[in-house]
Amino acid sequence: MAIDHAAGTRHRVPAVLRAPLEGRTWREFLYLLTSLPIAAVAFSFAIALTAAGVGTLVTFVGVPLLAATLAAARGLGVLERARARGLLRLEIAEPEPVRPRRRRDGRPAGPMAWVGALFKSGTSWRHLLYAVVHFPWALFTFVLSLVLWSVGWSLFLYPAWQWTLPAYAHQPGIQLYGDSNGHSFHLDSSFEIGLTCAIGLVLVLFTPWVIRGLAHVDRLLVRGLLGPSRLAERVWELEEDRGVVVDTAAADLRRIERDLHDGAQARLVSLAMELGLAKELVERDPEKAARMVDEAHGEVKIALQELRDLARGIHPAILTDRGLGPALASLAGRCTVPVTTEVDLDSRPAPAIEGIAYFTVSELLQNISKHSRARSAQVDVWRSGDRLMLRVWDDGRGGAGTTSGSGLAGLAERLDSVDGLLAIDSPAGGPTTVTAGLPWRARG
Question: Would you give the end-to-end CA distance of the chain in angstroms?
Answer without folding.
Answer: 57
